[in-house]
Amino acid sequence: MVASRILFFLFLIFVLVYQATTQPSFIYHSCSNNTGKYTSKSTYKANLDHLLASICSNTGNDSGFKPDSYGQDLDKVYAIGFCRGDLKPDVCRSCLNDSRFALTQLCPNQKEAIGWYDNCSLRFSNRSMLCVEESAPNYFMWDTKNESDNVYGYGDFIRILFSSIIRDAASGVSLKFATTTTVASAPDFSPIYVLAQCTPDLSEQDCRDCLDLIHAQIPRFGLGHAGGRAYTPSCNFRFETYPFFDVAAVVQSPHLPPVLPPPPPPPPVLPPPLIKGTLLNSCYLGENRPTGRTKRDTTTRTVIVVVPTLVCIMLVISNIYKFVLRGRKRKDNFETIDEMGNVESLQFDFDIIKAATSDFSAANKIGKGGFGPVYKGKLSNGQKIAVKRLSKNSGQGDLEFKNEVVLVAKLQHRNLVRLLGFCMEGNERLLVYEFLPNRSLDHYIFDPKKSANLDWESRYKIIEGIARGLLYLHQDSRLRIIHRDLKVANVLLDIKMNPKISDFGLARMCVLDQIEGSTNRIVGTYGYMAPEYAMRGQFSIKSDVFSFGVLMLEIVSGKKITSFHEGENSLLSYAWKNLREGTAVNLIDLTLRSDPLSEMIRCIHIGLLCVQANVADRLDMASVVSKLNSNSIALPLPKQPPNFMQNEVPLATSMKLDTDCRPVSQYDVSITELYPR
């Protein structure tokens, strides 16, 4: 009887430990320290548990995309469950349920976290994540088995194949999900299975942007490999030489090659030991059971055999449990890249850039900024690039260079310029960006001929795009960024005249509950600087708002802040005076006065609310975006803006790094120090 109770007790312990330790491990997970932490007995914790339980058990939503929120004010929690498009509802719910327990164990106190399985991902945060394209954190993974190192064009074939399904994934409505199976030009002509997917809340363009970012990395992580995966919060991509999705359950896109039947299963191969040196296989039960014993002898022998065996099993499982909780990366036949924060993966060879720009020829020079000339170029695969080459006397040293590389690589938004890579070789410092054929905004609004072709609809779209980009920097990104040098010359235009904020060399990153900082080194462009920054070195998200207000008034008027003279007025005071007197039309560019004046005057009004002398009187970017999107929101009367002369602004000669806002190269992320090759 006693032996039976002991056996039952040990069996119960075994079951509990087994259930705790058989929780599958994530392919990758990330616990963010940027949004703060919660305590185990807090309201936030209770709201999080309620929300995750609701998402994972929600049978009413079988779409595979489960966004929800719960709570109020600072304790409000947002979460998104996202399953692969071919999964059945019960499989999706099971995967999300596994994610729920694993993620809260691996990130026990963080207010923001994300984890990926093969079949699903789960993320939660104390900020809204819906309809926002986010590409960080991200994770790249590839099979170590090579396909002839691309001799037969295997890697190029994958890149082309992925490029062809981006359109189909992005154009989806209820599901932004596309798959294809086709034969590669590999030596054995084996089939390739490819999948691309975005969260369905994204717009078609945002989905394309997210997948394009992965596509740009294929030459670095997928070239010649038999399989590979890429995961971001908003999209993912995978290719293999075996069927990893339900071929029968998906509808093949009409733009892609037909789906091939799956190949016959390979012969069984014994898996390698999970951990080298483990005793897992040496603990067993029931072998060499003796026979011909009495009931009492059998019970005694069972206790003697079972108890040590269970203890052995529990010790092994306990070790595995610790291993899982540490979130160590899998050590099977996959290699990994721990986020694109490891910026070494973005490094270009100098000879490649030199060839792409025809040795930095004058014919390819498309501009010159404060830190050096900019050249256009074309890589061997036909991709057009823009290369910023830092001059030796530019004033931008290694600190600013690393700042811009790490910062722009981690920030991904349709209204921010995309960094493709960098190069450090000898004295050369190069930044490689996507090529934007329409150059910068100042080439249009300040040119009498070109400005006539930039109608109000185009200008308003540019204003809205810049506002959304700044809102992302200040509020919606994983980092809180203060740009510090926003001006029309730092707004680039793509082929559709969509604006993209550029030049992050002077940007500062703050912890998310910090909105201001100070410095002894005044950098930026006079006229766009907020007075508290220009005079005292104090900067904040509101100093970016000031710059945005100046930029708005320049776009509406077609006049430069630094060259405007109307009597003794600056552009700001002239705009305020005319708005107060009901003659704001005097500020509007002559080429625009046939367009709706009420919308332009409203933009002047919003611009003046952004350039208030008192920081507390200025709008924030969330308010700016809402007021631009709705004409029904009443606008308060602006106070007189500041009017200070350039020669009154003190020039600082020393630099003091900020305590809470600092160069991103000092930020605690997984990055590799940049050194010349």
UniProtKB/TrEMBL annotation:
Coiled-coil features, chain-numbered ranges: none
Record flagged with keyword Metal-binding: no
Pfam family, one: PK_Tyr_Ser-Thr
Signal peptide positions (record): 1-22
InterPro entries named among the record's database cross-references: GNK2, Prot_kinase_dom, Ser-Thr/Tyr_kinase_cat_dom, Ser/Thr_kinase_AS
A cellular component annotation (GO) from this entry: plasma membrane
Listed transmembrane segments: 303-321
GO biological process, alphabetically ordered: response to oxidative stress
GO molecular function, one term: protein serine/threonine kinase activity
Keyword Transmembrane in record: yes
Keywords attached to this entry: ATP-binding, Glycoprotein, Kinase, Membrane, Nucleotide-binding, Phosphoprotein, Receptor, Repeat, Serine/threonine-protein kinase, Signal, Transferase, Transmembrane, Transmembrane helix
Ranges of residues in domain Gnk2-homologous: 26-129, 135-244
Catalyzed reactions per annotation: L-seryl-[protein] + ATP = O-phospho-L-seryl-[protein] + ADP + H(+); L-threonyl-[protein] + ATP = O-phospho-L-threonyl-[protein] + ADP + H(+)
Annotated compartments: Membrane
Membrane topology: Single-pass membrane protein
Residue ranges constituting the Protein kinase domain according to the UniProt record: 360-677
Protein name: Uncharacterized protein
